[in-house]
């Protein structure tokens, strides 16, 4: 299996097993994110500022990278520290920051169900930038696999889970808030397209940086998360009055921050040794974990649409990674 296909060429069975384990852990962490956030709710609301969680996640990733370099888990490069190679990561942090904030603004111009369905277009934009920037051609079979991923994500978002106490269509969170008609404004459509383009570009650009630079992954992450902390610190400080940095945090919230920090580090390894396409499959497969945990922890019901989405994801994995 080639790097373009999400594998690591030339690895023996032990290292290939570790790679597979890493992908499974990342899938589990992605899938656990929404259920863990739901467990943080107090009276139906998240008791802490979202910007606090993002800032603390970035800070945790930065500290873990610095620790791995200090204790020698990854070797520091010989000679003068290559600080000039840090500058390109500022654009990565800016793109990720823009993508994360666009998600918030998009909610003003469309209903949550429409956003959940249409946001799957970022799979297509990631594939587009993957081909343009990294000069990789996808076969017709691989293109069909990614199309199936988009359809699977849209199916799951449209009704993969159901609140047994609510008969409204759409995601449980949307239904719990009461009926909201499907709608999207022209500006919302433009912002959604922009979000999908930025999301795809940020992933592929970061992959390109990490593969071109001959630096330890921990040092590259140190550069990326330093800019990430500075950017999110500015966004948090400029967000106006609200709860303090740690106000409203619980054990569940701390688990959310830690799991997202670890998952971010795992995804950076995927970018360096795998590909952005591998990341798409990890995120899509995490929908299955999300659904199972939501059913177990939040008493939500799996629907026929969930099983259809699971079938499509399995077929997509088979088409993309199966023997040709």
UniProtKB/TrEMBL annotation:
Keywords associated with the record: Membrane, Sugar transport, Transmembrane, Transmembrane helix, Transport
Transmembrane stretches, start-end: 20-42, 54-76, 88-106, 144-162, 182-205, 217-237, 249-268, 280-298, 304-321
Name assigned to this protein: Probable UDP-sugar transporter protein SLC35A4
How the protein sits in the membrane? Multi-pass membrane protein
**Cross-referenced PANTHER family, in alphabetical order?**
NUCLEOTIDE-SUGAR TRANSMEMBRANE TRANSPORTER
N-terminal signal peptide: none
Into which family does the record put it? Belongs to the nucleotide-sugar transporter family. SLC35A subfamily.
Lineage, highest ranks first: Eukaryota, Metazoa, Chordata, Craniata, Vertebrata
What domain of life does the UniProt record list for this protein's source? Eukaryota
CC annotations in GO: Golgi membrane
- A GO MF term: pyrimidine nucleotide-sugar transmembrane transporter activity
Query: Which compartments is it annotated to reside in?
Result: Golgi apparatus membrane
SUPFAM superfamilies in the record, alphabetically? Multidrug resistance efflux transporter EmrE
């Amino acid at each position: 299996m080639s790097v373009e296909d999400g594998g690591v060429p030339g690895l023996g069975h032990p290292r290939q097993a570790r790679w597979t384990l890493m992908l499974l852990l990342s899938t589990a962490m992605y899938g656990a994110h929404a259920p863990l956030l739901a467990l943080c709710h107090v009276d139906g609301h998240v008791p802490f500022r979202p910007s606090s969680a993002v800032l603390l996640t970035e800070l945790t990733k930065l500290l873990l990278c610095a620790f791995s370099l200090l204790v020698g888990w990854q070797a520091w490069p010989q000679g003068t520290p290559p600080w000039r190679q840090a500058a390109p990561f500022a654009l990565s942090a800016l793109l990720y920051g823009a993508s994360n904030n666009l998600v918030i603004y998009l909610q003003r111009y469309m209903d949550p169900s429409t956003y959940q369905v249409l946001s799957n277009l970022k799979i297509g934009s990631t594939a587009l930038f993957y081909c343009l920037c990294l000069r990789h051609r996808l076969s017709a079979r691989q293109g069909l696999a990614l199309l199936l991923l988009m359809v699977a994500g849209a199916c799951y978002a449209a009704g993969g889970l159901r609140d047994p106490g609510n008969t409204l269509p759409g995601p449980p969170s949307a239904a719990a808030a009461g009926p909201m008609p499907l709608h999207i404004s022209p500006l919302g459509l433009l912002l959604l397209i922009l979000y999908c383009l930025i999301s795809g570009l940020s992933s592929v650009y970061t992959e390109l940086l990490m593969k071109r630079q001959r630096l330890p992954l921990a040092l590259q992450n140190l550069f990326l998360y330093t800019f990430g902390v500075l950017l999110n610190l500015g966004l948090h400080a400029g967000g106006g009055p609200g709860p303090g940095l740690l106000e409203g945090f619980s054990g569940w919230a701390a688990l959310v921050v830690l799991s997202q920090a670890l998952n971010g580090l795992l995804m950076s390894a995927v970018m360096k040794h795998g590909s952005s396409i591998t990341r798409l499959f990890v995120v899509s497969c995490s929908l299955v974990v999300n659904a199972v945990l939501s059913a177990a922890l939040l008493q939500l019901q799996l629907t026929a649409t969930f099983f259809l989405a699971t079938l499509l994801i399995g077929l997509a994995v088979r088409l993309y990674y199966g023997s040709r």
